[in-house]
Amino acid sequence: MSIELLATSIADRAYDRIRSDIVFGRLAPGTKLRLDRLAKDYGASVSTLREILSRLSSEGLVLAEGQRGFQVTPVSPAGFQDVAAMRLLLETYALSLSFAVGDLEWESRVVAAHHKLAFMERRMVAGDREGTELWKRYDREFHQSLIEACGSQTLLDLYGGVFDQYLRYQMVAVVFRGEIAAEEHRILLDCALARDSDRACEVLTHHVNGCVAHTLDSGALR
Q1: Can you name the residues that pair with 33 across neighbouring β-strands?
Q2: What average pLDDT does range 9-19 have in this prediction?
Q3: What number of CA atoms fall less than 13 Å from residue 109's CA on the CB side?
């Protein structure tokens, strides 16, 4: 492997790891991101880390503080409401497009994604919180699968970034609404198979707004 490819590989791995650690709460909101410590933890140079943190800043996951460095973007009730509204705007639009053209292969991916999510939700309902991160990964995969036939990679990329910001709030609050959320996911699956986008958008709106209300009521974002 050439030196250039090796440097790119190291940078990409460091970016993926830092991003994942922010989204899933291992780097908590408000955490100061010291370059020397990050270099040790993620095996990348200080200059590479500056580029990574600048990139994450453009995604809204890191806050650049000028001469004071970087920190993980703090969370707030208003911030969660803004991210949730953007998620709904993108996802409801993409759902209608996806449901209109999704084929049998798309249906199969949606069913498979729901199967994994439902398995983890049953564990969560039973009180098992050991798999919280995997549950949220499957949650993301299911919602992504619902819209993946929309025909626009730009829309999917934009949605993915917004969903990860939404997911970060959920990981901070560890929000799980139990059987209510699981039932909403089951209905979304049925809507996908029936190509009922109007009903799906209605359920999705209730699903997201219910999560926001539950999170704000818990006081976890204060």
Answers
A1: 70
A2: 90
A3: 15
